[in-house]
Each structure stands twice: as C-alpha cells, then as structure tokens.
Amino acid sequence: MILIPNxxxxxxxxxxxxxxxxxxxxxxxxxxxxxxxxxxxxxxxHTSTKPKYYVLDMFPYPSGAGLHVGHxxxxxxSDIYARYKRLQGFNVLHPMGYDSFGLPAEQYAIQTGxxxxxxxxxxxxxxxxxxxxxxxxxxxxxxxxxxSPEYYKWTQWIFTELFASWFNNATQKAxxxxxxxxxxxxxxxxTVTACTDFEQTFSxxxxxxxxxxxxxxxxxxxxxxxxxxxWVNWCPALGTVLAxxxxxxxxxxxxxxxxxxxxxxxxxxxxxxxxERLLTGLEExxxxxxxxxxxxxxxxxxxxxxxxxxxxxxxxxxxxxxTRPDTIFGVTFLVLAPEHPLVNQLTTEDRKVAVAAYQKxxxxxxxxxxxxxxxxxxxxxxxxxxxxxxxxxxxxxxIGDYVLASYGTxxxxxxxxxxxxxxxxxxxxxxxxxxxxxxxxxxxAAYAEKEGVIANSGFLTGLPIKSxxxxxxxxxxxxxxxxxxxxxxxxxAVFSRQRYWGEPFPVYYKEGLxxxxxxxxxxxxxxxxEKYLPTEDGQPPLGNSKDWAWDTIANKxxxxxxxxxxxxxxxxxxxMPGWAGSSWYFLRYMDASNSTxxxxxxxxxxxxxxxxxxxxxxxxxxHLLYARFWTKFLADRGYLSFDEPFKKMINQGxxxxxxxxVYRTTDGKQLISKSQKExxxxxxxxxxxxxxxxxxxxxxxxxxxxxxxxxxxxxxxxDGSYLCGSEVEKMSKSKFNVQTPDELVEKFGADTLRMYExxxxxxxxxxxxxxxxxxxxxxxxxxxxRLFHQNENGKExxxxxxxxxxxxxxxxxxxxxxxxxxxxxxxxxxNTGVSNFMIATNELTEQKCSNRAILTDLLVLLSPYAxxxxxxxxxxxxxxxGTLSHASLPICNESYLVADTFSYPVSFNGKVRFxxxxxxxxxxxxxxxxxxxxxEMEKYLxxxxxxxxxxxxxxxxxxxV
RNA sequence: GCCCAGGUGGCGGAAUUGGUAGACGCGCUGGAUUCAAAAUCCAGUUCCCCUGGAGUGCGGGUUCGAUUCCCGCCCUGGGUACCA
Length: 961
What we know:
The protein is an alpha+beta fold. It contains 30 helices and 38 strands.
C-alpha cells in the first residue's frame, strides 16, 4: 500500500519521502475507518461453525453533552476483548445501540418546544461520530434504539405478555393467565399457590357467578403486570412517580428534587414473585462480589414467622412479622405503623385526638425528613390492648413511625431486650423491658446477637437461641396463630410514568378495566402533542393528544371525539419507565431486524446469554435486576432457553475530572495565584481546563473567555505565571472539566487514546482523568512504527523488514509477550497489557530487530489495542487485500522461553546481598555447594556457620545465620 | 451502624501459588544532537544520618522469608439502613 504524499510537503521535496513514512495517524485512521465501514468488516455471521461469543456494552443514553472520556473506557475494553475473540476464531456479537427514551430530551422539549425525537436523533448522530472516531468494531447493522417504533413494538408486546401471566409459587414459574382462569372455573382459588397479596378464597361456583368486572379485579391480583393503588414515590417537581431505585436519600436521582409518598393507581410489575430466583440465580453468575451483595441486600430476604395477636375486647387480630420468634416471651408491647388499617378502629376514645395528630404528622413527613430524624423517637399509645398468645398477659398497643406500613405486616411485636429500636422506644416511654436471655446484661442496651440461651420463656426456657427459633415456629403453627414466613424487602416495581417521551402502553379502558391491544396491532405509536407538560386537569402529557382513542373494530388509534365506550375507548395516558426498553435490548441485538418476533428462538438459542457484559455498577439495583427479571419471565413463558442474561460482568470505574480553579478576591477585582491566596480573602471559581496547562493559566485566553475579568489585576507567581488550584470531581459541563475524546483523537489519534485509557490503571478502579501521561503512550506507538521503518543516516525512514531467520532473543521476546498478553486478557488486566507491549517494543528496538516473522506476529497481537496502526502495517507487510481483523492470534511456544541460566539472588536472613548466575538445571544441593564456595560468603557470614540453607530452585537462595 | 472494595515512590500504577518491592509510563535531573525548538537518543531518579539502615496505612503474630497469610486498629471510596 502506497500512502498519498502529504500535500503540505510539496514544496520541500527533500523531506517528502521521510515525512511520507512517518507515523501519520490522522491519514491512517481515517483510511481504516472508511475501509471497515465500506467492507462491513465487523458484520456478524448469523450462522457459523465457529463457537459464539457475545460481548456487550451498556448502551448509552444519547445526551446533549456528547461522550466524555469516561464513556469509552468500558467500550474500549470490550472492543479489545471482542477483537481478541475474533482473532481466536470466535463468531463474535459486539453490538451497540441507544437507550433513547428518557427525561433530559423531554425536559429540553418542555423548555424549547423541540420534539424529543429530533433532539434525540441529533444526539445519536453526534454519539455515532464520536464512537466511530475511536475505531470500535461494532456491528452497526444490529443497532437498536429503544425509542424507535420497530423496537418498542416488542417492549409493548412483552408488557402484554406480563399482563397475561401469573406466577405459580408451586412451580416457581410464570404461567399463562388462561391456565389460572381455568383452575378458578373448576376449583376456585383454594388450591392455587400464587404470588399474590389476595387472601380471600372463593369456590368455582362463586367464581363463575362473578361479573366480568369482579373477575378482572381479582385477576389483577395475580397478573405480573397489574393496576393497583399503591404507595408510590411522587416527585412534584418532575411531575411523575419514580421507582425505588430512582430515589436516592429521598431525592430524585435526576435533578435532586424532593420525593413524597402518595397513593396512586399505577401499573406495577410483580417482580416480588421472582425474589427467590433473583437471589439464588446470583450464585451461578461471574459478577463481582460487591454487586451481587448489593442485589442481595436490595432483595433483602429475611426469614422468620408471622404471629397473630388477639385484641382485647375485639374480634380483630394483629399480625406481626418477626425474625426472632424465639423472643416472643420478651414482648412487652406492640407497635403499629401510623397508617396501619386497624389503628382507627382500635384507638380508644380518649386517645383519638392524640393518635389523629400523630398520624397527620407522620403523613406530612417526606421520606427524607423521616430518614433525617432516625434517632428521634416518637409514638402514641392508642389505648387498646393485645393479648399475648402464650402468657395471656395484656400488652399495650402503640403506633410509631419507625414501623413502616409497607414492610412486613406493618406491625411489630416489640421485644426491648432483644432489639435496639424497641429498647430505645421502651426507655423513652418508660415501658417494661423484660429480660429473656440467660446471664446477659440488658440494662444499657438490647442484646441482638443470636448466640446464647433463652430464659424466663415458658417452654422455650433453657434452649439455645437457634433451636428456640425452630421450636417457637412449631408452637405458633400448632396453635394456628401464625407460621414460618420469609419476607423480602424487594417491592413490586411501579411501571407507570407521567411522561411523554416513553413507550405508550398498549392499553385501553373499557368500563374502567384495562384491556390489552392485540399483538398484531402493535406498535401503538407515540402520539404527537402540542406541549409536553401535564394537562391543566393534571393528566399526563399524553392527555394533550387529540387522537388517543382505540377503535376496537378498525383496530387503530382514532380521535378522542370518536370515543363512544362501545367500540371506541380511551387509551392509557401514562408511558413506561426508562428501564422498560433497557430490560431486553441485549436480546434484540441477536436478531435486530426481526419483524415477527422480539427475536427468533433460533437466534436467541444460538447466541444465548451475554458472555461478557461491561458497564458501570450504578445499575446494580435498577437495570441489572430488571433485565434479570424480564429474562427469567421470557424463559418461563418459553421464549428463551436461558434465564440469566449476563453470565460475566466487569464494572468499569468512573473516570473523574480534574477541575481547575482561579481565586477571585471577594471584591471581584483581583485574581490571585494559588501560592498567594492565603494572603487574600478569595472565592475559588471553576475555570475551563482548556485554558490551563500544567496548572498554569493562559491569562490572555482567560481574559477572552471571561471578558468581565479583562481588566482584572492578576496577582502572579515570581516566574510570571498564574497558578491554578485543582480538585478531582465528577465530570460535568458546569465544572468546565469535561474532556471529550474528540480533541485527544485529533491531537494523538484513536490508537493512542485507546491505549492510554487502558494504561491509566485497572479497569474496575475509579480514577481521575489526567492527560499528562498520554505522550508516553503516543511515543510507544511511534517507537513501534519505527520497528518497521529503519532510520537510515538518521534522516530517511523507509519501510524495511528483514526476511532472515529470527534470532533466539527476538523469539524469546515475542513469545514471552504472547504469553503475558494472553494472561492479561484472561484477567482483564488491560493496563499491564499495554506495559507488556511497551516492554516488547523496547526489547526489540534494543535488539535492532526488524524481522518479518517476529513483527507480523506482534502486529496481530497488538491489533486489538491499536487497530488502525496495525492494519496499516499489515498492508505494508504485503497483505494487499487488507484487514487483519480475522487473522489468527499467534500462539505461545514455551520452548523459546526456557532459560539456560538463572541469576539467583542470595539473601541472608531474607535480605538480598548479591547475585550469582547459575545453570537453571542445577539441583538444590549443587546450588548450595556452589554458593558456599563463593568469596562473597565470608563477608556476610562473618565467620559463622549457616544455621539453615534454603534453596528454592528457579527462585531464590536464603542463608539463615 | 452494617456489608463490599481499597490504602505501595513526586504522580498513575506493577509484583500469577508467600521468594530480588517499585515493572511500564509520567514527571524531574544531567548529557548528546540542533543556529534554536520540537522530536530522538544516553545516564540517573523510594527515602535517610549512605562501606550501612529504613521502607508497601498503623500495631502485633505466623514463617528461613510477608505488599501477599492471621489478629486488632486507622483512613478512603462504594452500597445500604428505624426492614422488625
């Protein structure tokens, strides 16, 4: 391949040739990007005799800010891995797409009137350009966008399937709702073990006598997608509900707005049904322990018992959940959540005012207030009494906001001696603290350990705690006042959002009941609206659409004016949450253009679960849980042959930005250099990092950037420069510390950027972005290039490789590198991979090696890291047809690595004193003999005889004196 | 509070099963080349009271030998929380 002469050099012909063969990364990279696109080099074969490998990245939300240097970190790692897998002969699926529904585009639309589809399209183009610039080997023919109707058609379809399913606890599987209806018709619901909160029983006769409305409202209690009045996180500022994982410390994840509790009729998904499988499924996954632990905590399985307490003078019973049934004799009072349904009924007349006041106070508190006041103890006695099921004693009933209505049964049996919160509560209100632990002092704090012996507890007295738990559950079950029970912290996921830019529900309402639109009529396309805000009467934005009704005869969306509630009905106004589309996108990639199914069973069976998933750990309780849930559901219903989506996952660390500051005096007139700032009263101001080089401010550029300081007085350093301060923070536009990959690609090239991002440190570690080392990586690539281009007379560089037999030492360098790179790859240790390439290049440069065989192998080995330069050199080596993307990875021949001699460090009491070069084949005894005769021994033995002589062959010699 | 990850030179970091601590790169210092600069090349660079000694957050322990294993603390980052 002959390069096009550099036009800039036309007038300097003497230098033309030399310049020609320099590492001109701009020309090389542009050329190969075009080559790959034109030849569809990375298009994945659908059928192949090769083994499959699926490498997935978390697809980005295309925001207006574009990619910053943190985004590509994971993408580069996965791209390197995908390229290696291709070289190893795998049929690799390595796709990319966009999570293109979401809040920012909608908020931008509210502010500007710009349709979110247009903003999103623009942003996607920008992202695509940026991604292309880095030279990723994505198969773009499989791109997905969650906001495209061809895609969300299937998101809607999955929702209708969830609606049409229930969870059978007996089989631990989702099953079709028809099977449940059939059971109801024949046997009623008493034999059904389903995941539901519905507790009434009905016979077949009763079922068959129900009206269709009654039937449907019962079925809602079983469906995996159901409408229910539930407590939701309502964010007034965003005007929408949020899922638990979208609320952080009582504030919305997006925008940090306060979130309150509100009861609303919303779609929910019964993820709770999968609690146990989501938990046990973690065991087989190759994920980090920390992310598994986060999911375990989120699912929050706790085992214990439910126990019923009778209420004195009432037929009502209070059910409590406890993990410590063994402490039942320690109960001295019960505490109910203020919202507990029995509170109003049981409260005695004299307590009504106080209870109502407390309830009101509790309801007004936001989640955040409640969390902020954790140490504050409050509660009210409601006047009524419960009866202890074993002692028959009466125990007081209280309400307190430390008991949550939404967890367990909304009521607890208080055991102050065994639970610190109960202890605190008892102390605060002067309630009895009964000690039921043998030889344990509970005068200062509760005893919560599960070690010890129970005392003062009737039939439990004398039992160790662990057996007392078992015995207590038996007793409770025998008395028929409770049973052993497992509780999960995991809540069903609220699936409605009061937003515009999301998937519309394929749902219309007839007589107040939801009906699904048949799959053959999907997608239900998002309607056009005039404005993206809620309607004046508080309906979600889709309420602004004039054409949002479903014609059940024509099977199409029609004008609202046509609604007659006989054949034309109103459509659902909510849209689906952001995580709907991202819960199954990895399946769509397998068969992205399928128009008859979300993906064919043939393709999903071939590709199976993702072999390697790289992405951030911030999705642990959101996306990663929901995606597992949907995968299990689709597997249960027979659409997939596997039920875990991501076999192995690596979580890349966050790249932080390094912000720069100038120090402005409080009067705003002077700007003080860092070392002088202690002498003034100053405020630090973020300054754009492009104006700062090595902490030194470009004062002229700064004046142009901030004209208000053009006249300011700069207090500078002795050397005349202005020194900025710095801090490591999250990258953000407002902190002026965003580094885009584009400028680095422009300055150093994509290959340098790729290798530098990998060289920064271990992939999983968070680290500040710092470009000061990028020269080192760039120089490495130039040095690598020079291996192929001999520098003659110090002036001309021409392509020049030798065809001689490779030397022994060059072979050793090559094969050592092959071995190390493959070990690094298995460990996902990309940073040491880069350094091993540097070592190889340094050694071959030293050896003056320009051997074709050596360099060809090294080139293939390096190509996943730095694909552009390697493609170019590959062609120069004579592979005229181009591309080494599907070449074979060289294999390590260990016979080249065997060394004849080894330089033994000789240490005394563990301290290395000198070295000796010995034959590698010597045995321990010969080594000892040889070392003992050495003249250096005299000095370190100081006339003594060694107590011990340790030889580790091939490692070390240690003399104990 | 509880759970998880981590703490190594001026900096980013390396050290696969306990076996030469500081690979590789940055930065810095000196030198070569150059009219000069860039680039490139060569040498040096953990610290100190320097023929020696200390040293992988701190204090102990096991071992011939510990960044690596054990015990107790400190600090940083992440997760989570009146979850009964």
